[in-house]
Amino acid sequence: MLERHDVHMCAVQILDAADHAVVRTVVDKPELAVHELTEAGYQVFTTDLRSRARARRGTRAQRSSQPSPSSARRRPIWPRW
After folding, report:
1. Average pLDDT, rounded, for the chain
2. Less Cβ around it within 10 Å: N or C end of the chain?
3. Burial class of residue 33 (count of CB atoms within 10 Å of its CB; 0-12, 13-18, 19+)
4. Above pLDDT 90, what percent of the chain?
């Protein structure tokens, strides 16, 4: 569906449960992807990743000298089996 409109996925994460699944994607044309997925009947929620990246920016010295408060709680993206 997105391929027809030349929308490319840069990243995908799938979380599934017994009764539903959540698919998180990063695409190169987010507005077009939202439009096409909505038209196809999918429920779509968006997050602007650029604003999150700006909020975390700092100089390299600042980043290395100030540990993140969430660094102790970080878990791997994929489960370890």
Report:
1. 76
2. C
3. buried
4. 26
